[in-house]
Write a structure and sequence with these properties.
alpha/beta, Rossmann fold, 2 domains, seven-stranded mixed beta sheet
């Protein structure tokens, strides 16, 4: 029987031949799934033999990867903001670009003087955004919500995995419809924002395997963003902030939308490639108050 190291080397070679961009990392993730260990612990099994049942399992998931099934679903785990999150098919896969604005949100949250910081993660998916904030901000109390039962259950699981379940509540809710009367310091959201006409231009890996409902948002891609701002305003404290992800081309439309509401558009946050990936929008206290910038 081959050793784990030998199997890993063979996987890397095969993935390279099929032009995967990160063959070493993907090989480690696939092996971690088969070994049922965290990806960082695969190397501890380097010299152990991989028995036939596990080799068969590995062969099966490797075939699925070649067919285009996202590595995140096959591995069942994905790292976000240096934290391990479980992930399953039917729940939106978090992107690296999201980390750029989540980092800024965490910095802002850590600056607040409140003893108990109230935060909402609207459309929480696997919970990566809100749970990351709760992990790094010890006095943060999180409400997460999603319309999909799979997402709510997975968020609860991830909150337990990362030790923030006692400060977290996850609701099955169409936006804020199931929320109790609560006021938030910050509302975080990565809502659907893909335009209907752009669906066919997305990669097959996205179109065939990720939930369509977690991506599409009407003709201009603004349907859910508009709802989050309109419905979320009454759940936000005066002076509270929205951190909202969007397509870079939607920034101006979102700025105009904020102006039509009792909201103040503060600034955009660039992603890793320098594109305007998120916006910070404030619920006004008064017209004369200095804005957070």
């Amino acid at each position: 029987m081959p050793s784990v190291k030998e199997v890993w080397q063979g996987l890397v070679k095969d993935l390279k031949e099929h032009s995967f961009s990160s063959p070493a990392r993907e090989a480690r993730l696939l092996l971690a799934s088969v070994l049922e260990v965290e990806p960082s612990r695969v190397y501890l099994f380097w010299d152990e033999e991989l028995p036939p049942p596990k080799l068969t399992h590995l062969h099966d998931i490797f075939k699925k990867r070649l067919q285009g099934v996202p590595i995140q679903y096959l591995a069942g785990e994905w790292e976000f903001f240096s934290l391990p999150f479980r992930l399953r098919k039917g729940v939106f896969i978090p992107r690296l670009d999201t980390e750029s604005w989540v980092e800024e949100a965490i910095v802002y949250l850590r600056s607040l003087p409140e003893e108990k910081i109230m935060v909402c993660d609207m459309g929480c998916g696997s919970g990566v955004i809100g749970i990351s904030c709760a992990f790094w901000v010890e006095n943060l109390y999180l409400y997460g919500a999603d319309i999909f039962p799979k997402a709510v259950e997975l968020s609860k699981e991830n909150a337990h995995l990362l030790g923030v379940e006692k400060r977290s509540v996850f609701l099955l809710s169409d936006l804020f419809s199931a929320f109790p009367p609560v006021k938030f310091d910050v509302i975080l959201s990565n809502p659907p924002y893909v335009r209907e006409e752009d669906w066919d231009s997305l990669s097959p890996e996205i179109r065939l395997y990720e939930p369509r409902e977690a991506l599409l948002a009407g003709e201009e891609g603004l349907d859910m963003i508009e709802r989050v701002l309109k419905e979320g305003e009454s759940f936000l404290k005066e002076g509270g902030l929205f951190f909202l992800e969007h397509d870079p081309e939607q920034k101006e439309a979102i700025q105009k939308l904020a102006d039509t509401l009792f909201l103040e558009y503060l600034r955009s946050i660039p992603d890793l490639s320098g594109r305007e990936r998120a916006s910070v929008i404030r619920k006004r206290r008064s017209k004369n108050e200095t804005a957070y910038r």
